[in-house]
Amino acid sequence: MAATGILHPLMAMTAMVMSTSAIMVNSFGFKIIPRRETKGRKRILLSVPGINCQSCVDRIRDHLITQKGIQTVEGDPIKKIISVAFIRGEIRENQIKEGISQLGYTLAD
């Protein structure tokens, strides 16, 4: 359209720059329009250096499993990892992390 003179070349160039910029921003994981958190199952792995035995894992599991939205809690005291499956929209990741911290455990970054 710009070649035929119907659309001014500067307007066409501006539209192309905006379109390309939006594609680049979205492709790198930045969202122009924030997405609402939808319900769905999610699993997170948390590094908890303070767990030393299966009793530590059981203590964390027994505490977290009572919270709404938590489906499963598993752990490996040797690897010092806790795996939590939960329903997004019913509980948030930071609430799970706070639950572990309430028991006196610190989370690794």
Structure notes:
With 109 residues, this protein is α+β, with helices and mostly antiparallel strands. It folds into 2 domains: 1-35; 40-102, Alpha-Beta Plaits. Helices cover 37% and strands 21% of the residues. It is built from 3 helices and 3 strands, in the order H-E-H-E-E-H. It has helices at residues 9-27, 54-64, 93-102; strands at residues 40-47, 70-76, 81-88. The chain has a 3-stranded antiparallel sheet. A hairpin with a 4-residue loop joins strand 2 and strand 3 (81-88). The model has no long low-confidence stretch (mean pLDDT 83).
Overall CATH architecture of the largest domain: 2-Layer Sandwich
The whole-number mean of residue pLDDT values reads 83
* Number of spatially distinct domains: 2
**Percentage of β-strand residues:** 15-25%
Percent of residues in helices comes to 25-40%
Backbone structural class? alpha+beta
Which strand order does the major sheet show?
Answer: 1-3-2
How would you characterize the largest beta sheet?
Answer: 3 strands, antiparallel
* CATH class membership of the largest domain: Alpha Beta
The radius of gyration computed from the alpha-carbon positions, rounded to a whole number of angstroms, is: 23 Å
* Terminal Cα span: 53 Å
Element pattern in H and E = HEHEEH
- Compute the number of strand runs: 3
Please, how many helices?
Answer: 3
Low-confidence stretches: none
In CATH, the topology of the largest domain is named Alpha-Beta Plaits
Summarize the structure.
The protein has 109 residues and is of the alpha+beta class. The chain is 37% helix and 21% strand. The chain has three helices and three strands, in the order αβαββα.
